[in-house]
Write a structure and sequence with these properties.
The complex is a heterodimer of chains A (228) and B (517).
Chain A: E1 5-9, H1 13-25, E2 29-33, H2 36-45, E3 50-54, H3 62-71, E4 78-82, H4 89-95, E5 100-103, H5 108-124, E6 131-134, E7 137-140, E8 145-148, E9 151-153, H6 157-168, E10 174-175, H7 176-184, H8 194-206, E11 215-218, E12 222-225
Parallel strand pairs in A: 1-2, 1-3, 3-4, 4-5
Antiparallel strand pairs in A: 6-7, 7-8, 8-9, 10-12, 11-12
Helix pairs in contact in A: 2-3, 6-7, 6-8
Chain B: H1 3-62, H2 67-77, E1 83-89, E2 94-97, E3 103-104, E4 109-112, H3 117-129, E5 134-137, E6 140-144, H4 160-168, E7 177-181, E8 184-191, E9 194-201, H5 203-255, H6 270-318, H7 325-356, E10 365-368, H8 369-386, E11 390-395, E12 401-404, H9 406-423, E13 429-436, E14 440-446, H10 479-489, E15 493-498, E16 503-510
The chains are: A alpha/beta (228), B alpha+beta (517).
Chain lengths: 228, 517
């Protein structure tokens, strides 16, 4: 990920400091605003690669900022920052034109993964593909089967969805909560580590014996399929 | 006691308005009543005069020879102040009368007594104007009968007293007439060879009216006073009742003592019902606060343990001498695990209170619970298998449509599954069932694990309740509380059954209405 310019509108100074320093460590540039109105003016000025906007802000809330930006035809990727109890806000946020959301407290790995995913979506601009090819694994999205070295691998629907999501995000980390949301439609984190079990089943079906796993575990962050 | 203090500010205006309204009403009533009374009395007098006249006329016509004695016997019994009779010949000459005033038969002059001199003078002038020969001496006034012409008098109604007097003593015109003036009602007609005149005083009607009016005038203030007294009594009674409520409420307000209740000796009347409502509201508040206090204690207790562990780990990391990067990383990772656990507890508490506030029903959509259940079972199968359990779904494969929050129902199913998997013990058979009957969708999660003592079934859904065996296993103690909150939000009935062995939690949800596809 090349260096990018971020606009952060956040009135919680602790969270802002954390996000800004995390992004700075990754080599990005961050402009921080505390006030919603001022932040909107800065966003309208343009020149940012990603907008990170808190839902609750002084003078102008996040949703209103998103609406005005989208109304002004500014399509810069936008990620909302919400609190734990604001899960319902998510739908409103996405309706207002946000690309994704992050639940506080924000972890660095989550922040990074979400930014990557949003940027990728933004760049590829999703043309409908019929298959995804990663190395020697071909994922047929129409017939919903996987081929590796000429063999058909039969997957359960949920396993297929899991593999598809990882493959679409190849080269990038998919966090636990991203997988829960996109594969199982859960906006909360069950206590049981379901993903681990599903990943190990998937691995047992797809991996070649003796070789490194097709699906890589990124410690403390999530899972990833390396771009071939 | 000043009116203001007795009545209070609102009471004062209410009394002024109602008193005004009362007075207006009473006066109208009074006016109608006296009009009614006098009209009744008038018509009674008229009937009486007619009845009397016809009776007498009949008797005279039957026996004209005895007219004189018939008349005399009638006059003997008549009160001349009320009833006046006169019998004349066809020339108008008075034969008999009980007219009380002095009458100069000889000179054929009638004397009207009790008049003022000026009045007599006026009458004299008036009489002369109509060709009447008049005299007056002092308070007496007289006129010559012979000078009375035919049909002159009654055209001049301006002098009622004169005309009626003339009329009554038979000096009037000889035209049959029924005449009413102020004070008298009379009938005068030819009966055989006589002129018969019967008059009746109207004083009685006036008197009745006056008495009615007078009585009303007396009763008006009395009834007003009584109304005020009754009103005051009601107000005092109401005031006492309201004061009792006010006193208790203000004590609660000032002391915060939710254990206080308003005494309610008459629970059946309106104030008793109000008191009852306030008391049961206080019951609920008290219970809620007690529960809240309990939960707060539980939270404090349940969070202190992981927080202490976290602190211990961080401290041990700090005290590592010459610790390698790996050692420090391990400390940090362990600390992160503790922190995540704490955050889990917090988000569960937040979710429960958010769901319990009941504001989320607006987000309800119709969906198929069977599909959702199937997905959740598929999602948990690998985990269950890894832990040595068998997880199976019994389903009729027909849609079980309910109206609700799909995301929350997913959480509910997951929490039930996790409860079995985490707390049921080693290798279990977990059976999830989703079926739909006529008006309910029934979802159940059953296991054959250690189960819960039936005495504790009710407490299973309490926040932070953890069974004896679960004390040592991981979890926030909030999973089933969240299940209950979600079930309540969906108007679902939830029941814990002893699966002998194991636990069977059954949920009955209202089916989505049939008209929606």
């Amino acid at each position: 990920m090349e260096d990018m310019r971020f606009l952060l509108i956040e009135d919680d100074m602790e969270a802002a400091k954390f996000v800004a320093s995390s992004l700075a460590q990754l080599g990005h540039e961050v402009n921080h605003y505390v006030d919603g109105q001022e932040g909107l003016v800065a966003a309208l000025g343009g020149g940012f690669d990603v907008l990170l906007i808190d839902r609750r802000l002084p003078s102008l809330d996040g949703i209103s900022i998103a609406r005005r930006l989208r109304a002004a035809d500014i399509k810069t990727p936008l990620i909302f920052l919400t609190t734990m109890d604001g899960i319902d806000d998510r739908v409103d946020g996405l309706d207002a034109g946000a690309d994704d959301y992050l639940v506080k407290p924000i972890s660095m790995s989550e922040l990074r993964a979400r930014i990557d995913a949003v940027m990728r979506r933004y760049k590829t601009d999703s043309q409908p593909a019929t298959y995804i090819l990663v190395g020697d694994v071909k994922i047929d999205l129409v017939r919903r089967i996987v081929r590796r070295e000429g063999n058909d691998i039969h997957l359960q629907p949920q396993e297929f969805k899991l593999l598809e999501f990882l493959a679409r995000n190849k080269g990038q980390v998919a966090t636990k909560s991203m997988l829960l949301e996109h594969v199982w439609g859960l906006t909360f984190d069950p206590k049981t580590n379901i993903i681990e079990s599903h990943i190990s089943r998937l691995r047992s079906k797809i991996d070649k014996s003796g070789a490194a796993s097709f699906i890589e575990t990124v410690r403390g962050a999530g899972y990833m399929i390396r771009a071939a | 006691m000043p009116l203001k203090r007795v009545l209070g500010t609102t009471g004062r205006w209410a009394v002024i308005f109602s008193a005004g309204a009362y007075l207006l009403l009473a006066l109208t009533f009074l006016w109608i009543m006296s009009a009614l009374v006098s009209s009744i009395v008038d018509s009674n007098i008229e009937r009486k005069v007619d009845w009397s006249f016809e009776g007498l006329a009949e008797a005279i016509q039957a026996r004209p020879a005895q007219a004189d004695s018939i008349m005399r016997s009638r006059l003997a019994g008549a009160n001349s102040h009320v009833e006046i009779y006169s019998l004349r010949d066809l020339n108008g000459k008075i034969l008999l009368t009980n007219y009380p005033y002095e009458f100069d038969y000889i000179n054929n002059f009638q004397i009207l007594p009790d008049l003022s001199e000026t009045y007599c003078e006026d009458l004299k002038n008036m009489g002369q104007d109509i060709g009447l020969e008049c005299r007056h001496a002092g308070k007496f006034f007289g006129f010559d009968e012979d000078s009375v012409g035919e049909g002159d008098y009654f055209e001049d109604d301006s002098e009622d007293r004169l005309s009626v007097s003339l009329f009554l003593v038979g000096l009037s015109d000889l035209i049959p007439s029924r005449h009413e003036t102020e004070g008298y009602l009379a009938r005068s007609e030819q009966v055989g060879d006589y002129w018969l005149t019967i008059g009746h005083t109207l004083d009685l009607a006036d008197e009745t009216r006056d008495v009615t009016f007078l009585l009303s005038l007396i009763f008006l203030p009395i009834s007003l006073l009584m109304a005020l007294l009754v009103g005051q009594a009601v107000k005092t009674h109401v005031g006492q009742r309201v004061n009792t409520i006010n006193n208790t409420c203000s004590t609660i307000e000032n002391t915060g003592n939710l254990a206080l209740r308003i005494p309610n000796p008459h629970p059946k009347d309106e104030y008793g019902k109000l008191t009852g409502h306030i008391n049961s509201m206080l019951d609920r508040l008290d219970l809620a606060v007690t529960q809240l206090e309990g939960v707060t204690d539980d939270i404090a207790h349940d969070l202190r343990t992981p927080l202490s562990r976290l602190r211990y780990r961080l401290e041990s990391g700090l005290s590592l001498e010459n610790g390698s990067v790996e050692d420090l990383n391990s400390v940090i990772e362990q600390s992160l695990v503790e922190t995540d656990g704490l955050l889990d507890t917090f988000s569960s508490i937040l979710r429960i209170s958010q769901i319990s506030s009941g504001q989320r029903q607006s987000k309800f959509r119709e969906f198929d619970l069977e599909t959702v259940t199937r997905e959740m079972v598929e999602m948990f199968t690998p985990v269950a298998t890894e832990k040595g359990h068998s997880l199976s779904l019994i389903s009729s494969n027909t849609p079980a449509r309910i109206s609700g929050d799909e995301n929350m129902l997913r959480q509910l199913i997951i929490n039930l599954l996790e409860n079995s998997i985490e707390h049921g013990g080693g290798s279990l058979d977990i059976i999830v069932e989703c079926k739909s009957d006529k008006d309910k969708v029934v979802l159940s999660v059953a296991d054959n694990g250690k189960g819960v003592d039936p005495h504790d079934h009710d407490r299973l859904f309490d926040k932070f309740y953890r069974g004896e065996q679960s004390r040592t296993t991981k979890g926030t103690g909030l999973g089933l509380a969240l299940v209950k909150a979600i079930a309540d939000l969906h108007n679902a009935h939830i029941k814990v059954l002893d699966n002998q062995p194991g636990l069977n939690i059954v949920l009955k949800l209202p089916k989505a209405s049939d008209f929606a596809v």
